[in-house]
Structures are given as C-alpha cells and as structure tokens.
Design a protein that fits this description.
The complex is a heterotrimer of chains A (286), B (481) and C (300). Chain A has 13 helices and no strands. Chain A is mainly α. Chain A folds into two domains: 11-65, no CATH class; 75-241, MetI-like fold, CATH 1.10.3720.10. Chain B has two domains: 6-161 and 346-406, Periplasmic binding protein-like II (D-Maltodextrin-Binding Protein, domain 2), CATH 3.40.190.10; 188-339 and 429-477, D-Maltodextrin-Binding Protein, domain 2. Classes of the chains: A mainly alpha (286), B alpha/beta (481), C mainly alpha (300). Chains in contact: A-B, A-C, B-C. Chains A and C meet through α1, α3, α4, α5 and α7 of A and α2, α4, α5, α6 and α9 of C.
Chain lengths: 286, 481, 300
C-alpha cells in the first residue's frame, strides 16, 4: 500500500527487504536508547554515594532500594509529581486549543497584518531565553506578585510560538477547497474550525499535546525560579535535590529520572492511535 | 459579522482568564512578599517581620532540619518568622543571581566567601557592623570572620571554614615507603611529592598503569580548584600582592605550570586528567586505582569508612570493585621553596537588599536570623556532619545529634594545617577582583585545560596569562621578576 | 501537483478579518505579555550598564565591546560549526527513519516510534550524566572500548580540543530524534493514497515516488524542522555547560553559553542582552535565507 511497492513478487524478497530495514532500525535504536537503558538499570542499584556509578553494562543486581530512597528522601516526593502533572496538563490543554486556533488563522485565513504579525512571532523565537529570563521574572514575581503559585508556573507557557508555527506548517497541506466549499455553503469560521478543521487536525493536535506536555513536564529552570517552598516544586526541581556538595546519589537520581519519565510513556501510548489514524485529507478527492 | 467577532474575542479572553484562575485557585501558597525588604505592618509594641533565606543542602541532614529551624527561631523570637527556601548546590547561584538582578533577593543567602566581591560590586549587600552586638562578634573566630568583610563593612557571617587537602590510601602510602605521619605534621616539598607519587605507580605485565600516584579532579570548572590549591603553596597565595599588583605574571607561576605538566609526563598522573571529574576520581580512589587523590575534604574519611563497612557486610551495597581504604588526610606540597599556606575555604551567609530600602528594624532582624543559622547547635550539627570544628564558641559548646568515629591522626593533621590559615584579604578593591575573576574564567581555566590535555606548553600558557593581565592591569599593575 | 498549487493560489478569498483577529487574540495577548515585553526590555537593557538597583545608559558601548571581543567571534564560529554538523544530518536521519518505519504494521511502527522517542522524555541533566560516563577518558569507558576494537588508543573525548566538539556532535546525532520522526510521520500519513495509486499506474519506482510525491509534500515540514532546528542549535548551551564547561581552551564555547556566563557569572547583563540581540539577528538572517531559498513554492 502507498509509498512502498506491493509488486514485489516473491515473499522471499519482501522478507529480505523488511529484514534489512529492521536491522538498520534496530541498530540505530540500540544506539539511541543506550543512555536510557543505562539510566534505568542504574536506578536498580543501591543508594550509594558518589563514585558508585557502575561500569558494567548488565545490572549486577536488581533492588528497589533507590526508589524507596527517592520517596523517603522528602515528604514532598508525591507533591512534586502531582504539581508537575497539574502544571503540564493545564499548559497542554491551553496550547492545544489556542495554538491550533491561531495556527489555523495564520495558515488559512486572510486578514490585514497577518504577514507582519507572524514575522514578529517568528522573530521572537530567536531571542535566547537567558536574556528574557530576568525581565520575565520581574514581571511575574515583582509586578504580578505571583511567586510560588500554579499561575506563575503556567502563565508564561500558555501558548508558545513554536506550537503556533508547528500548526501553521501542518495546516498548509489542508486543501483550501474544503474551506471554500464550506464557506459557500454558509459556514462561519468558528463552525468551519470546529466541524472541519479540528477533525482534520487530530494528528497535529496529538503531536502538539505530546510535545507540549513533555516540554512542560521536563522544564526545570522556570519552575525552579518561581517556586520557593518544597511543596510547590515540580518533579524536575525536586530531582535536583539529590545532588549534594561533593556527592551525588546516583542511583536514586536515576530512579527519580525513571519515575519522571513514566507519565510520558503513558501519555505517549494513549495518544498513539491519533497518529495512526492519519489526516483524512482524502475528503476532497479531485 | 463584526459584532460576532467581538463576542468571540471576549469569549476567548474569558476562557483564558477562567483557565488561569482555575489553576491559580489550586495554589496552596499565595504570594507572600516577605522578602520585600521592609519591616512588616506595625501592630502595637513589637513589629512582626518575616526574614527569608535561600539555602543549599550544606550537609547531609541540613535541609531536612529546615522546618525545625524555622520553628525554633519563631519560639526564640515570637514576633519574627524565618522562611527558608531550599535550593540545590549547582542551581543555588543562578537562582540567587536571577533574584538579585530582578531586585528582589532573599534577605539571607548562602555563598562562598570568594563570591562576596561580585555582589558588593552591585551594591546589594547590607553592612551588619552596627547591628551585630559585640557579644555576637566575639563568638566568631577572627580568621573566618574576615572572609565576610570588605573594607570595614561586615557583609555577612561565616558558617564554616574548611581546608582543602589531598587524601592518601594508608596501605599504598606505606607500600611506597612514605612516612605519612611525618608529612601530616611537617608537610613536604614538590620534589619529595614528585618522587613519592612516582613510587606509587603500579603497572601490569603489558605495561599499562593500573594504579596512579596522584589523581585530581580537573574536569571543567574543577580545574580552577586544582590550580588555586597548588598556587597557595607556590608563593602565590592571592591574585594580588600587598601592593595590589597581579601576581600570576611572576616566574613562580611558570614554575608551577611546569610542575603540573611534569607530574603527568612522569606517568604519575593519568594523561586523561583533564576530563576526570569529582565522582570519577573518588571512584578511582575507592577502587585502588590511585594512591593519592585531590581535592580532599575532612568528610571523605567518613565516606571511605562507610564503604569499608559495606565491603565487610558483603551485601553488594559497596562501590563496585572497591577495596578497603584508610583515608589519610595530607597537606598539599609546597612549590618554589615557598611556605605552606593552606587553601582555606569559608562559606557563609550574606545579607541582601532589593529595590526597596530596608528599615533599620529589618536589618536588625536579619542579623538575628543570620546569627541563629551560623552559630549554636545548628552550626554544631552541620560542622559535625562535615567533620569540621565549628568556628563559633557557641557551636563548639553545643551538643550534636550524632557521633562519628574519627581518625585521630587526621584530626591532628587538620588542626596543624588550620593553624597556618591566613585571614582573608579585605583590601582588594572590587573592580580589581572582578577583573581577576574575568581573567580566571576567560584565560586561565581554558588554557589550563589545554595544558593538562598536552595541547600547549607551560610557557605558552604563562605567556597567554601574562598578556591578558597586562591588557587588564597595565605593565605597572603586574608583578615582574 | 504543481498545477493544483497554482490553481489554489489563483483562488481569490474574501477577507476573514474579524474572525482572524479573534482566533489569534489569546495567542497574541499571551505573546505580548510573556514574550514581547521581555524582549523589548532586553533591547533597553542592551543599551545600559545594568544594575539591579538602577542602570546607567551607555549607548552602544555593549555592542562595540562585543564586536571587539575575540571570544564572541570564536563562540559564533563554534556555534556555526555545531549547527552545520548537527541540524542537516539530524533532519536527514529523522526523515530516513520515518520512511523506513512506514512499511510495517501499526504495532511494529508504534514500538519503533516509542523507542526513538524515549530519550526525549528523560531529563537532559540525567542523560548528560550518562553521557559523561560513556565518554569516560580511561580505557574502561564505553566509547573507548568501542574504538579499542579498531585498535585505536583511548581518547580523551571531552578533554581535548581535537575531540571535544565532535563528542558533543556525536551526542546530538545519537540523542532523541523522536520529535522530528513523529512530526515527519504525522506529515507522511497526511499524504493521500490516491497520489501513490496514480503514480503506481504510471509505473513509478519507489525512488521516483519518494522524489516526486513525498519530498515535495513534506517540504513545509522539513522547512519547519530546519528553521526550528537551527534556532534551537544556535541557542544550545546545556550540553556544553554540563559536559565541557566550554573547554578545553574554548573549543566548545557556544554563543548560548557565552551569554549565559555574561549574564550569570559576571552580572554583565547589558552585554549579555546585546550579544543575544546580535545572535538573534544572525538567526533571523539565516532563517530568512532558509525561507527565501527553500520556502519558495510553499503556500502560506
């Protein structure tokens, strides 16, 4: 079907082709996941101080001591996970909705100043974060006085330019004819968006959700800046508490990293089906 | 059409606001502007006030005791609240610096005394001289106290003082015929040290080194420590001499750089030294891959002992492939025939102000809280966990929560080295200090990394540092010999 | 295909002004508060000697100093080298993998996607620790054991100027391409089967289909990945910061790291702002060129 030829006659050569591809994919996969593999097996080590980094590829033993250590380390270990979830979920919902809306407008609607506005948005992506960090901190903490609140954690990421850009690029491949046809039949733009664009954009929305959730979940620096009590910290900030002056609790840190990665897997697999459905652009053949 | 689009605009704004407030409603802790710098609203005789502090995990159980510390302070001073923000070591500086730059720093922050001039240059430090009582001042040892002074101003209080040493494996030292007890008391010269570490090298049948004589963590910014510690005993105790001339242009510096290269070329130190980090070299020490390691801290004795116990217990919890090690604390050798001056590191607390001018009352309260954190039982406990002697009289008298076994020889060696510690220089102007730090980060550290990787010669590095120093301080501003 | 595009362009659409503004309203408000305002602030700071308790206006001094700073140019060169070595190759790799995954069953596809995506979900700091371990300079290190198989002596990966940049590049090649792969796959699934069917009737080979259908169709996606990839790569500083500290001898000092150091090590906030604006200008120029030369026949 599709891109790949089905006119390969013998099963043998089909098998050979797929075998070859699988081998390539597996080799690269092995190289890519090696650090993760190492992270996970190290997390089963004992909570020993610095220098305990094992130099063997296979785990010498499996123990859950480090996981226990992680949860016993602070009474706020669970708070960190819950905080991360609340923050990432809010950011994801608002990004998926507002970025899709704005991305659609920039891709398919005609209005004055569209080009300039989009250029400004793009331009802003180019300023390194180190410099906008202090003004943003002043705004949130000194002007709005929001430090140590969920609002402060969520607000700056409400809708990101990257996401708008991503949606816009995706929407460029939706044929204008669909929208035109809907307009001729008297559909208003919100209706078009809701009944035509949204269903067609499930894939990009799922991609957006995963990427945003991941970015919010893994964000370290901003939560670190605006939180000042343990119970408001997110998991990434909490994880860093495992590093002491001259020692690092390596195994518990890896256990924490593994724990923090698990929600991402769950999200990833639960959104998987949307990727595979694909965009039903076939709606307008010819 | 127009009307509907306006309503849509409204609708979407409402959605945004409701989203925000929904999430904001979950916040357990609404904004608390305790660090605003002014004493809180008056309410009768004693004014209520909140003091904020940003603190790292100083010792293993320090952060765990924060809640107790806050409560105890409140019991002592019912009108005052101490609010402690925890931060990890590596992110501490960046968080503090962002808050300082935004004009809303915590009242108290933990820094290494070497960073004092950086904050002084921004005019964000508060002089506590007038609000600290003589009684409090007398509680602190003079040497560490000076580390938090610039000119006449007392910008903070020291928390502990620690000597950077090097640490040896007792068994290996004895095998190499080194009289470590004598060295602990009398020190050693570079020539003696060079000979000793080359004797410590062990090779296998195919000529590969299985044990080095000396390994120091020099990866990345740690290389700064390596050079600074050696420079102290090479006749270059500070960047500036008493006439405020930059000292690293002296021939002594070239001599030190030559020695650094020699130890690697001899095969006594690994040629990959430039990317060995703190964790790696400690692992090498515990697994018997090196006789001596640096830098050494008093608490390492405890880490080694704990690992020995795990080896004995034989339950697989010890560091993989490690051997039983008796940690022996040793002084850094002296170079160029110079006197032994230990690298004494003092960390402590500084008092900070934001955009708002703090009231006299508030400054007094900051001093109270700061003294509370750096003396008495709090100081006794973190010092104890770090294997250090408290630097306050009250700390030395206070009870500690846990007793650790100590190696008496190491304790004696520590005291001998501590006795030679010099007080900090308080006469170096902040702009000179800032310029020296810039040379350090932009020239000295990168070139040192290249020197360790055998990419440049000691002479080339010396020339580069000299050129940068002359550019910054002029021909007259540097030492020529 | 091309005919269709031109046809589309000819279609005159009535203006959607009102709704257009409504659709972007929230995005725009959030943008102006949390992005535009700090950026404008950065502009102002770049003309100042910044101090938390009050700044002094110094005109273009920060820019002049930056231009005279050798280190800035060296960092810019390093950044350029890093970008050229990583971004195009990584995009090519992601494209290749996305194409290679296509012929398999849904289940196999999801397994591979998940595997390639894995490194992205772990925190960068934890992974940097693991990579430090891989690049262990002694013989026992993984990377050294690997080159040892080919009879090469152990390398001081991150500690020598000859290999430190390469080590960071290698790390980028082997770290997560999951995001790009997923974006590519989503776009690939968006290509309607009828195009392939038509091509099959014409007897097109696999490569012809790739060249005439897939690559043109994925052009907006590729451009997106290229532009954001270059922007990201120019701002990259975490790995250099965590793994080499910019060394040895500034061999891995990138502009991002330089700006970070200026802002938070020296408190030279004005200079950091000036440098970041110059960096932004460079990125803008490169993005503009990318749009101009690669984005020609993409419809907006």
């Amino acid at each position: 079907m599709g891109l790949y030829n089905n006119n390969i006659k013998s099963n043998g050569s089909l098998f050979a082709r797929n075998g070859l591809i699988i081998t390539c994919l597996l080799l690269f996969a092995a190289a890519t996941i090696f650090p993760i593999y190492f992270m996970i097996i190290s997390s089963f080590g004992d909570p020993v101080e610095a220098g305990a980094m094992s130099y063997s590829i296979l785990p010498s033993k499996i123990s859950f001591e480090s996981y226990k250590f992680f949860f016993n380390f602070s009474s706020h270990s669970w708070d960190w996970l819950i905080n991360s979830f609340i923050v990432a979920a809010c950011i994801t919902v608002s990004n998926v909705f507002f970025a899709t809306l704005a991305g659609y407008a920039f891709a398919k609607m005609r209005f004055k100043g569209k080009g300039i506005l989009f250029a400004i948005l793009l331009g802003s992506m180019m300023i390194p974060t180190q410099v906008t960090q202090v003004p943003l901190y002043i705004l949130i903490v000194n002007v709005f006085e929001l430090q140590n609140t969920y609002t402060a954690l969520i607000m700056p990421s409400l809708v990101t330019v990257y996401n708008i850009f991503l949606v816009k690029q995706f929407m460029s491949s939706i044929p204008v004819e669909i929208i035109e046809a809907a307009k001729i039949e008297g559909c208003s733009q919100p209706k078009i968006f809701w009944h035509i664009i949204m269903p067609l954009s499930k894939t990009v929305m799922a991609v957006l959700a995963i990427l945003t959730f991941m970015a919010a979940w893994n964000d370290f620096f901003w939560p670190f800046l605006v939180t000042n009590t343990m119970d408001m910290q997110t998991i990434q900030v909490g994880l860093k508490n495992f590093r002491f002056a001259n020692t690092t609790y390596f195994a518990p840190m890896m256990a924490g990293a593994t724990i923090s990665a698990v929600p991402m897997f769950i999200l990833f697999f639960s959104l998987q089906k949307y990727f595979l459905e694909g965009v039903a652009v076939g709606a307008v053949k010819g | 059409m127009k009307k509907r689009s306006v309503s849509a605009l409204l609708l979407s704004s409402i959605m945004m606001v409701s989203l925000l407030s929904a999430c904001g409603g979950n916040a357990n802790n609404t904004a608390d502007s305790g660090n605003s710098g002014s004493a809180g609203n008056s309410g009768g005789g004693v004014k209520k006030d909140t003091i904020t502090a940003l603190l790292p995990p100083v010792s293993a159980n320090y952060q765990a005791r924060f809640a107790d510390m806050e409560q105890e302070f409140n019991t002592l001073h019912p009108n005052l609240t101490l609010k402690i923000e925890p931060a990890s070591w590596e992110d501490m500086t960046q968080k503090l610096d962002t808050q300082v730059n935004a004009g809303s720093p915590p009242d108290i922050a933990w820094i290494g005394a070497s960073g004092l001039s950086k904050y002084a240059a921004l005019n964000v430090l508060i002089d506590l001289n007038t609000v600290l009582s003589d009684e409090i001042k007398a509680d602190y040892d003079e040497v560490p106290m000076k580390y938090f002074q610039l000119g006449d101003a007392q910008y903070g209080l020291p928390a502990y003082m620690e000597i950077h040493t090097i640490g040896g494996n007792k068994q290996f030292l004895e095998e190499a015929g080194i009289d470590w007890k004598s060295i602990q008391q009398n020190g050693w010269t570079y020539e003696e040290f060079r000979d000793a570490i080359s004797k410590g090298v062990v090779k296998n049948d195919s000529g590969e080194t299985t044990r080095y004589g000396f390994v120091f963590a020099t990866s990345g910014v740690a290389s700064k420590d390596y050079l600074a510690i050696l420079a102290k005993t090479a006749g270059l105790p500070d960047y500036f001499d008493n006439d405020l001339k930059y000292t690293y242009t002296s021939k002594k510096f070239l001599g030190l750089l030559t020695a650094i290269r020699e130890m690697v070329d001899d095969g006594s130190m690994p040629k990959e030294l430039s990317s060995i980090d703190a964790g790696k070299r400690w692992n090498m020490f515990l697994t018997g891959q090196t006789m001596i390691t640096g830098k050494g801290l008093s608490a390492f004795e405890n880490s080694a002992r704990l690992n020995n116990e795990k080896i004995k217990a034989n339950d697989g919890s010890a560091v993989a492939d490690s051997i039983e090690v008796d940690y022996i604390s040793l002084p850094v050798p002296t170079f160029n025939g110079a006197d032994y001056i230990p690298t004494s590191i003092v960390d402590g607390y500084i008092a900070l102000r934001g955009k708002k001018e703090p009231s006299e009352e508030h400054i007094k309260n900051i001093a109270l809280a700061m003294n509370f954190l750096s003396s008495g039982s709090i100081a006794a406990n973190y010092s104890n966990e770090l294997f250090l002697t408290p630097i306050t009289e009250s700390g030395r008298k206070a009870e500690v929560l846990e007793q650790f076994p100590r190696n008496e020889d190491n304790v004696a060696a520590g005291q001998a080295m501590m006795a030679k510690a010099l007080p900090a220089r308080t006469d170096i102007p902040t702009d000179l200090a800032a310029e020296a730090i810039k040379i350090e980060t932009e020239v000295i550290i990168p070139k040192l990394q290249a020197l360790l990787a055998d990419e440049i010669t000691p002479q080339e590095m010396y020339d580069a540092v000299k050129a940068a120093a002359v550019k910054s301080f002029g021909e007259d501003g540097v030492v020529v010999d | 295909m091309n005919q269709m595009l031109t046809k589309r362009k000819k279609l005159k659409l009535e203006s959607d002004s009102g709704w257009g503004y409504a659709f972007i309203a929230v995005a725009l408000i959030a943008f102006s508060l949390f992005t535009a305002y700090p950026v404008i602030n950065a502009f102002i700071i770049s003309l100042q000697e910044y101090g938390p308790l009050g700044s002094t206006y110094v005109g273009l001094e920060n820019f002049v100093n930056t231009f005279a700073d050798e280190l800035f140019w060296k960092a810019l060169k390093n950044t350029l080298v890093y970008t050229l070595l990583t971004v195009p190759f990584n995009i090519f790799l992601s494209f290749l993998i996305a194409i290679l995954i296509m012929p398999f069953k849904k289940k196999t596809q999801s397994i591979f996607k998940a595997v390639y995506y894995l490194p992205a979900v772990a925190s960068g700091v934890s992974l940097a620790v693991v990579w430090l371990w891989i690049f262990d300079p002694l013989k026992s290190g993984i990377a050294n054991q690997l080159v040892g198989l080919f009879g090469i002596d152990n390398q001081n990966w991150l500690g020598s100027s000859a290999t430190s940049m390469f080590s960071l590049v290698l790390m980028s090649w082997l770290s997560s391409h999951g995001t790009a792969i997923i974006i590519y796959l989503a776009a690939l699934l968006g290509i309607d089967n009828s195009y392939y069917e038509a091509a099959d009737i014409d007897g097109a080979t696999f490569l012809q289909k790739l060249w005439f259908i897939v690559i043109p169709f994925l052009k907006p996606t590729t451009l997106f990945l290229l532009v954001t990839g270059v922007i990201g790569s120019f701002q990259v500083f975490q790995n250099a910061y965590l793994m080499t500290g910019g060394g040895p001898d500034h061999a891995t000092t990138m502009v991002g790291l330089l700006i970070f150091n200026n802002a938070f090590t020296y408190f030279e906030f004005g200079e950091a702002a000036a440098q970041s604006l110059l960096l932004a200008a460079v990125i803008a120029l490169i993005s503009f060129l990318q749009f101009k030369f690669l984005g020609k026949d993409i419809e907006y």
